[in-house]
Protein: Methyl-accepting chemotaxis protein
Amino acid sequence: MKKRKKQHMSISKKLTAIMVSILLLFGLVTLGLSYYIVRNSNLTDMDQSLSDKGMILAKTIDIDTLRSILDNPSKNNSDALRLTSEMDAINENSDSITNLYLITVNGENINAPVLSSSILELGAEYNQDMIAMGLSPDFLARIKEIFNTKKATATDIYSDEFGSYKTGLTPILDEDGNILAAYAIDYDVSRVTAKAMSEALWTLLVTVIFLIGSSIAVYSLLRKKLTPIQQLSLQSKKVAEGNLELDPLPVTSADEIGTLTQNFNSMIETLKNVIKSTTNVSARVSNTANVLSANMQEATDSYNNVASSMQEIASGADLQVQKAKESTITIEEMSIGIQRIAMTSNEISESSILASEEAERGNESTNKSVSQMNAISKAVNQSAASVKLLGEHSNKIEEIVGIITGIASQTNLLALNAAIEAARAGEAGSGFAVVADEVRKLAEQSEASAREISTLISHIQHDTNESVNIMIHAVEEVDHGIVMINDSEKSFSQILTSIHHVTGQIQELSATIEEMAAGMEEVTSAVKDMEEFSINSKDNTRAVAATSASQLNTVQRVSEEAQVLSELSDELLNVVHTFVVK
Structure:
């Protein structure tokens, strides 16, 4: 079942209804007050009228005629009948008098010797016992009061089965001032009430007419004054639907409604400007977020490349450490060999004096020397090759470190650009600015680490070059030694005659070999240093790789935040686009 739309009462109708209710309440209060005032006024007039009419009627009764009636209070007494007729005439000519009668008191007996026909028709009779009629105690007390005080009085309003009444009692005195009877006049209070109600109804009629006229005037005035509010309601409904392309409402008054209309027009204009500014800012934030997201993707790719390069560098560092260890072992072996050569040279120098006697043994020693020198030459050549290979690896590491330095510089530049874009985004980009600053710091750390590695590699290359030069010199010396030994072997037949000369040469050779031994010790120390440096380089390379991985995670998080920022900007644009603004 379709639900009926709830009807809303307009403000003008509500205010008119409130005004009518107030006026109606005022009319009802006025009616009540009018009725109360008129009724009390009439009752006050009634008391005065009862007193005045009672005194007049009491004076009109002849005392002798009254005595005749009191002596024979019956319908057979012509005086009684004539007084009844007079009472009936007074009753007929009065709107408020209902009953008239005389009252006498004789001890405890209270009687009415003469009554108007209005009472007789109800079943009463002449000389009626008033107590038997069921009079109220107040009425009986007032009767006894007037016979004691001989002064006119009136009862309170009382009710019986025939209606509501107020009775006035006026004493009738003889020549000596003795009270013979009391003249009683019953006023019908309901007639006074009806009169008061009639006058109050006229007041109510005037009030209703005034109320209708006032309601029409108030409704017209309110409708005219509240027309701008109705226009405001229609305009605000359009604004709630998202339509801000509204013409300004006319300001027709300088009161609160006019101020409200003017403020509403200003609010619409301000809201238009806010929506336009929000739309522009949202579009700029969305574009910036998209650009930042693309830049972060590029940075992610760059860091992936950096991570791969660092892995390769780490692997190369492991190989470098292994080669350095091998070079150390080789150099140590060369050192041992050279020491052996030195010892052998000393032995040759010592044995040269006995060369002639030990020619056979000298020949054998020379052969051994040739073999040993060939082994030394081979070992030195291998060491030179290893050191040269180490130099090539150092050059490759330097190239990779150069790539890392370039990537760190680009990352630093990207972080700077991201910080600038975050600053442009204002408060919305404050969190992203912190992330960009962290990225910049990591890039600077990476660049600093790369510079340290480059410096260490330069030292390695320098030491390696020196090792290569020493190795070349050693090779030349070994080759020279081989040539000399070969010459010695060829000239061995002349050893006996030129033993002294050979001894000098051998001593020179011994000195040279000792120098070579000392040089080999230095080479050994340098290679050990190079091995230790290779180990440190490997650890540093792995640390750089871990830092690069951490930077990659940071860049990925920044990229995700940039994507979220782009989505939020799109949502803001969708919300703003619900408003129609040129």
About this structure: The first helix runs from residue 11 to 60. DSSP finds eleven helices and seven strands in the chain. The domain at 275-576 is CATH 1.10.287 (Helix Hairpins). The mean pLDDT is 76.
